[in-house]
Design brief:
The chain is built from 4 helices and 7 strands; from the N terminus they run αββββββαααβ. By secondary structure, it is α+β, with helices and mostly antiparallel strands.
Length: 202
């Protein structure tokens, strides 16, 4: 008796599982694409924020990071712990610097003496003043200016004027003497510096 084989029929549910697997693969691919796009956008935003120029008003930056700074206690301080320094961008156009105002004084030759020695000092001076009014006053009262400077010079010690500190003290004494008001003026003039243009001790 002949038997007939039933044709191989796909199991129920196979076609559904194939369709759902395809949908899962599409969803996974879509999620991966979204993650890559989000990561790319984040990196791009981070780089553009770092590349933006600093604002013109000034920003806090750290200088000398990692260069072995020393703290107040004498121990080295690491770079990231260093105090921030305020950085201000330079102006677009350079600012005009006022020209210095100098008042040259004729040289002095003074004899300095004490119990041990006697020396002759030849000194040339130039006064630096802060404004034109001070320059005009000093030039107008030049005999009194020279008298004041001569009194300061003659009171110096021969050994003191030969040292660096002695010259600094002499310049300060001359500045104080010249800055005193001239009678009958109520206020003084403003000498900012005393410059030695010649200094010979013999």
């Amino acid at each position: 008796m002949a038997t007939t084989k039933a044709p191989n029929m796909p199991a129920r549910g196979d076609s559904k599982s194939g369709g759902s697997g395809r949908i899962l693969r599409l969803l996974l691919a879509l999620i991966v694409l979204l993650l890559v796009a989000a990561a790319s956008a984040g990196v791009t935003w981070f780089l553009t924020q770092r590349m933006q120029p600093q604002p013109q008003g000034g920003a806090n930056v750290q200088l000398a990071v990692g260069q072995g700074q020393v703290g107040p206690d004498g121990h080295p301080v690491a770079g990231p712990q260093a105090a921030p320094t305020n950085f201000v961008a330079p102006p677009a156009t350079p600012q005009a610097v006022p020209a210095p105002i100098f008042v040259p004084i004729d040289p002095f030759t003074v004899t300095l003496q004490n119990a041990d020695m006697e020396r002759i000092v030849h000194v040339g001076l130039t006064l630096r003043v802060s404004d034109e009014q001070s320059r005009t006053r000093i030039e107008k009262y030049m005999p009194e200016v020279r008298s004041r400077i001569l009194m300061v010079l003659s009171s110096q010690s021969p050994s003191a004027v030969q040292t660096q500190q002695g010259k600094i003290d002499l310049a300060n004494a001359v500045k104080q003497a010249v800055n005193r008001p001239f009678s009958p003026l109520p206020d003084g003039q403003y000498v900012t510096d005393v410059l030695f243009t010649a200094f010979v001790v013999q």
